[in-house]
Amino acid sequence: MKSKFSAINTLAGPYRGESLLKKRTINDDIAVYSYLAKYDKKFYRFIFVFYNNGLKTRIYKFLFDDTAELEMEESLKLYME
User: Fold this and answer.
1) 2-80 is a CATH 3.10.450 domain
2) Average pLDDT of span 34-58
3) How far is CA 74 from CA 18, 34, 45, 52, 78, in A?
4) What residue segments make up the domains of the chain, in order of their start?
5) The predicted structure's pLDDT at residue 31
6) pTM, entire model
């Protein structure tokens, strides 16, 4: 994971901030946060899944990708046709 973040900084340039895209929760048990991570040359989507087992909340899963741009382009095609 650490090497993947190093690769992001090498390819995309310096980190410039983030924006919350979406937040979903199921009671107090599971929460999913999707962020737009902004870098100098490119952006990524970071997804955090948190799980509360009743005693402690932990990161259950972490994902990141750069396909958000393709998904946005595809969703815009529906409106442009």
Assistant:
1) yes
2) 92
3) 23, 19, 16, 35, 7
4) 2-80
5) 97
6) 0.73
